Amino acid sequence: MRTSMLRSMEAVLRRGEISFSSSSSSSHLLRRSYASESTPERKVAVLGAAGGIGQPLSLLMKLNPLVSNLALYDIAGTPGVAADVSHVNTRSEVAGYMGDEQLEQALTGSDVVIIPAGVPRKPGMTRDDLFNINAGIVKGLCTAIAKYCPNALVNMISNPVNSTVPIAAEVFKKAGTYDETKLFGVTMLDVVRAKTFYAGKANVNVADVNVPVVGGHAGITILPLFSQATPKANNLSDEHIVALTKRTQDGGTEVVEAKAGKGSATLSMAYAGALFADACLKGLNGVPDVVECAFVQSSITELPFFASKVKLGKNGVEKVFDLGPLSDYEKQGLEKLLPELKSSIEKGIKFANAN
Ligand SMILES: NC(=O)c1ccc[n+]([C@@H]2O[C@H](COP(=O)([O-])OP(=O)(O)OC[C@H]3O[C@@H](n4cnc5c(N)ncnc54)[C@H](O)[C@@H]3O)[C@@H](O)[C@H]2O)c1
Ligand SMILES: O=C(O)C[C@H](O)C(=O)O
Asked: Which of 136, 156, 185 is the endpoint of a domain?
């Protein structure tokens, strides 16, 4: 029976009928979709592809039938990762690129560039403690993106996202290539966590759950809006909501502590990164009503960047949705997060312009 299941799975993959979805109707990773003979060519580059996130993310992107070319770039280790992933019998051609001199080839022609390059946290560190190393890495990679694939959608995973996205924006502005509809801080893992934790407490099917998460991607700047969660749960007290909010905000730290010095979330992040990249590809391909949360240029608060629901279309961000009705608890959370998020954004802008 197992063999016949594997055979039919393989047949479906060969026909290109498997896709990814985190939509409200289903959070299952693999799902039949509209992919067909007419699916356009799409090149996706993963920068930091040999890392803890990069490797499983590269595998998940290899499983995505919307990808025709997968470029795996890192400063070391990519030949092995690319050879390994390339043996998976799905649509995309895989190529590995290593070192500065191969970055141009890796990036040229990319429709989506996913960036999980940089150091992860160890116990006791904040995401901001990664700034000194990761800011320079992101700046260098974005300088190359501006040169070699200025029209690509950029999915920024490297922390601190609250600062690395503003750094990327400044680099692109200086290069004259900035398009605010094409730059995204990936906050999908916060949404994935909020859905999982909510489903557990509300006792509902996790596949049916939707929870917007707004603000930024660090501690109290992560603001899950459980008042807007669906399906509605009648069994959750105010104390439950406070606990769920705190667990979502501390989700990254929970993993960092459990890994005890061996890094931060990699597998769940690869899953979340693959979902978000898939949403970007669907938008580019003209699939209607693709809506996910992301940290983007925004005017829905006083801050220049903010995470909220965004509609993804043929050019990237088509619409940034405002926050909708908030509970009093969420209104307080919003007030509290603004100063910290503001200073992280300003730190990124200052770094990009000083160096
Ligand atoms: N946005 C999120 O929700 C989220 C979630 C988890 C982790 N992260 C962040 O993602 C980053 C990567 O985490 P990880 O666990 O994969 O780390 P890792 O150390 O396992 O991997 C990072 C990879 O980046 C590579 N790298 C370093 N400099 C590079 C450069 N200039 N160009 C290309 N590649 C380069 C390294 O060689 C390594 O392979 C960290 O900053 C981490 O904090 C973000
Ligand atoms: O917590 C981290 O440092 C990694 C990531 O931002 C996460 O949320 O898991």
From this structure: 185
